[in-house]
Peptidase
Amino acid sequence: MKRAHHSWIKWVCTGILLAAPLAPVSIAQANSPKAMEKEALEQIKQLPPKAKRVVEETAAYFFRSQHKLDIQIQKKREDAWDVQMIQHPDEIGQKHQPSSVALRLSKGGKLERLDAFWDAKEKKGSISQWTAVDEAEGFVKQVLGSDLRAGLQPSRIANDWFAIPFYPVVNNITVQKEAASVIIDAAGNLRSFQSKEIELREAMLPSRSGVIDSQDAKRAFADLLSVELVYDDERGKFGYQSSPFSRIDAKTGNRLTVPYETVDEEWTWDQDKKSAHLTTDQAKAIASAYAGLDAGKLSVRTSRQKHPDEDAKTIFTVTDGKRILILKADENTGTLLSIHEEDAEKTTASNSKKADEAKRKARQFIESYASLEKGDYVLREKRYAEGEAADEYQFELYPMHGDVRAAKPILTLSFDRSQNTLSAMNTRSFQRYSAATPAVIAEDQAKRAWLDAISLELQYVYLNTSTMKDEQAKLAYVPSFSAESRFLNAATGQLEKAAD
């Protein structure tokens, strides 16, 4: 999956272009909802039918009533408009509604980009990648009604936002060329949509002639599928997780690349390791030694973050004048909870010789700053295929519950591939399972349950996303959902949606 361009991410987060006041042709403002309804409908009549529909559906998607909105429209050029929807004063304070939504519409009413501006209180939350995909799909289906399909592997932005790619469809076959992208924040709010210009020559795509039968493809897929018994300590359930799914060449039945492969290393801690309260000096040390900030130019600002139903956090904002690193620590225990770089501008560089150095830094960081209970752990390295999230090295630390690995990591680390510097870190708490592993279904039964739930879809895929030429596309059978989005309950044999 191709990652979102950081220059666009920065624009989305700041909203520089569309946050500025518009010079409206006319503004719908009224004292009553009924008058507002009439004014708003009159206002959007100047738009062509397709653009008018996009505006109406956008209002219906984001706001409880499209009648209590102030609408501003500015014609930018021939058959192109900027439209801004602002909450009517009567609606201000309504929960889970943005304060305003800005759209850029081009010729024919095509939605080029959209920004939704939310109150700070709407930023709270932490959603899963599949929840983000569901939200993005709902927006595209309702507002655009277009034949675009979401990618199953969104990219994570900073700490807890997701960028979901959308692909065009040719003759009912998805083409994995990114035609649009949607950004969803940690609370599940849609922040932005951006259309992207792509070159797609349908005549150059491989023909469907010679494609193997879907059942033959599924048998090939079955030979490649592997499952592992894990314990989900957040839900108190044992389950079978699958490794990342392979893609099957639709004409040969051979395996194509998987998004990533994993390499595990076993760890043992002989005694509890509790970290001391994070200090300003430690924040500086992490910023310079691991994140690559200039040690001679560092300054640190501390602040406090508090939500009613969460423990207070101390925020360390470290900068060298060029880059900014944000560290969060538990105010009571001082435990380091997360790290992310703000407005990071990164370049993709494929240099596998640095992988060992990144792993050494990951081990060193965990030993120096992680708070760990006595027991056994697995340090997992994710090795991405060429063109698949290739700008980062990623490491995850899992506790062992007896002889079974945890379903989710308790610590994740990401290192920028071009500079081998720490770009993100996250932790979570867990409760170790100490009882004997209960009776569960057998591995071969679990594998059959996974296979029964998966359907394979024909798609045009590109094995190297840096040179996406139509003549290089391959027809592949691709699973209908990502391995990470499902959890097979080992007691019931039922496939469940993974917990957020």
Summary: Residues 1-36, 346-353 have pLDDT under 50 and may be disordered. The first strand starts at residue 69 and ends at 77.
